[in-house]
Design a protein that fits this description.
This protein has 349 residues and is α/β, with parallel strands linked by helices. Helix content is 47%, strand content 16%. The strands form three sheets. A six-stranded parallel sheet has the order 8-7-9-10-6-11, with helices on both faces. A three-stranded antiparallel sheet has the order 1-3-2, with helices on one face. Strands 4-5 form a two-stranded antiparallel ribbon. Helix 3 (52-70) runs antiparallel to helix 4. The N and C termini lie far apart (81 Å).
Length: 349
């Protein structure tokens, strides 16, 4: 017979209860759906009743969410669902280490920290290596976390400047036909990097650093012939470089510098038949000392809960459509076979 247990979680106040249970108890409902326990919220208390092993998991989950809240982090459905997954896998200690790390605090007072185990491994790889190559799907935080690490290095006086670059237009970087001066030509392609910096530094500090040259943002073509020393250098959209361009970029590394290359090999915009420099570099440089290569997974994608439901709905629809088309194809084949096997009417009958 399974041993039953009842335990309580004591909350500091209503604000903490709201943070842990979610608006209209949305977090609480997600937790109830995930564990075969009776979980009851009573004011500033949470009662958990059920099998000993399951109750311990639920208590551990709430304690980690409580720890996260008290460190000043706003809890979202992502944190709740990700924490549920790790607790169910028996990785509570891994969850605590994940939630316990803060990389920096933004100008708005927001604590930036890894949100998945894959993101934490990514940050550790950047710390340990002069060059990091990060490959993974969109939404895994590759670019944003690289910019965060660059700002942290600048604040810690580990580097004197930040240099951000990406291929401007496909691999050839054909900017001539665009209107405006150089800055106006490349701005649309570099906008994600501007947005990340402004979010982390605040607009005033960002503009001051840009004016002083502490932050430089430029298309990849303008890296040729330079040696980048005492800098944190980020190449974004690395999948859209050729092998020659990637080699050119990586060999710009100077003393006191770090490089991070990010990209998604499923989003290559190069002409047909041209190999992605990102994929080639990951293959050639695997195991080279000082270079870390990390491959992030779909589990590291951070999405708004509504976006997750939208994607799931589209996936379900596309699967239904594929099944419908398959049924139609099978129906046409059966009809064709019946037509072929139907007895022919003898001539003259």
């Amino acid at each position: 017979m399974q041993e039953a247990l009842e335990q309580k979680i004591i909350l500091e106040d209503r604000q903490e209860a709201y943070a842990l249970l979610g608006e209209n108890d949305t977090f609480l409902e997600a937790i109830r759906e995930s564990f075969p326990c009776q979980i009851v919220s009573r004011g500033d208390e949470i009662d958990v009743l059920g099998d000993l092993a399951e109750v311990k998991k639920v208590i551990a989950l709430f304690e980690e969410l409580q720890y996260l809240h008290r460190k000043g982090t706003r809890i979202t459905m992502h944190e709740v669902r990700y924490a549920i997954g790790l607790v169910q896998e028996g990785k509570t200690e891994e969850l605590h280490n994940l939630f316990g790390e803060t990389i920096l605090v933004t100008s708005q007072g927001r604590h930036v920290r890894p949100k998945t185990v894959g993101q934490k491994e990514y940050l550790d790889t950047i710390r340990k290596n002069e060059v990091t190559i990060a490959i993974g799907p969109a939404g895994t935080g590759k670019t944003y976390l690289a910019v965060v690490m660059a700002v942290a290095a600048l604040r810690g006086k580990q580097v004197r400047r930040i240099i951000l670059t990406r291929p401007a237009v496909e691999a050839g970087e054909r900017l001539g036909f665009l209107p405006g001066d150089l800055q106006e030509k490349v701005d649309p392609y570099l906008r994600p990097l501007y947005d990340a910096l402004q979010d982390i530094l605040g607009l005033d500090t960002y503009q001051k650093f840009m004016a002083k040259g502490i932050i430089e943002i430029a298309p990849l073509a303008y890296m040729r012939g330079r040696t980048l020393e005492d800098a944190f250098v980020i190449l974004d959209e690395g999948q859209n470089t050729t092998a020659k361009q990637m080699k050119m970029f990586l060999t710009r590394l100077g003393f006191g510098s770090r490089m991070v290359v990010t990209g998604d090999l499923s989003q290559v915009d190069l002409p047909r038949g041209v190999d992605s420099g990102l994929g080639v570099a990951a293959q050639i440089l695997e195991g080279v000392r000082g270079i870390g290569i990390i491959r992030m997974k779909s589990a590291d994608v951070i999405r708004h809960d509504v976006v997750t439901r939208i994607v799931e709905a589209y996936d379900a629809y596309e699967e239904q459509e594929a099944q419908r088309r398959e049924r139609q194809r099978e129906h046409r084949e059966r009809q064709a076979k019946r037509t072929q096997t139907r007895p022919q009417t003898a001539e003259g009958e």
